[in-house]
Amino acid sequence: MAESKSRPRVLFVDDEPSIRLTLPPVLQESGFEVHVSESVSDALFEINTNPYDVLISDLNIGEEGDGFLVVSAMRHIQPKCTNFILTGYPAFETALQAIQNQVDDYLVKPVEIESLVRSVREKVDSRKSGPLMGWRLSSLIKENFASFADGASRTPKKNSSALQNDELSRVLKAIVEQMDATNDELNPNAAQVASDYGKRIKKEGLPVSSIVGGAQRLADTVYGLIQNHQTTADMSTLITDLRKFNHFIGLLTEKSLESYSRRKAA
Description:
Layout: H1 2-6, E1 9-13, H2 17-29, E2 33-37, H3 40-49, E3 54-58, H4 66-77, E4 82-87, H5 93-98, E5 105-108, H6 113-129, H7 137-143, H8 145-153, H9 162-179, H10 188-203, H11 209-228, H12 238-262
Parallel strand pairs: 1-2, 1-3, 3-4, 4-5
């Protein structure tokens, strides 16, 4: 039993029966403890239920690109896990490079067995011998939405309102969604959230300075998160992530101010 516990745990996700019957046994024989999932829903259940050291997921499970959904979930819920993508399309390399912050490596089908085992072993050993990858800023924010809402609810009434706190939570979620994307422009959902925020603040009779003050509260909240999670944050990407956060909070604030100025007081 003790020996089993010391073996690296692998979650293997693929909808092809032939692959599930061949590769997992090889990994088992090579010293890994392997659990097999054949669907995205089963994989997400495992990610939310059991700890894993390695994820090996097919690129196209039920639908095209489903593997990225599985990898993204693993990165957010178990950030210390090493992630591999299996693909039968080596030309997809350019897209994989665009999300290299989420995928540690990719393997091209048909997989050469020795290469697979060697690659997985090297990644696992490097994680054990070197510093573990910390949480990206977007993941830290997602994990601390509850504490943000709790802190907002204690804000003095003269400086805020329950409605404003709720709207700021929506704005923060919109920012996180944008940070996980590659586009530097506001997506339609984020733009709508910012516009609604400006309208609600005007309707409540709060001054326009409330919007700027709300943005500052969001920034202070995020800086506080970083200060409290210095040992778990991914410091190698922190500056880039902060620049992205500040970029989008600026765009959302600008959109909110525009909406506020266009709306007549009720």
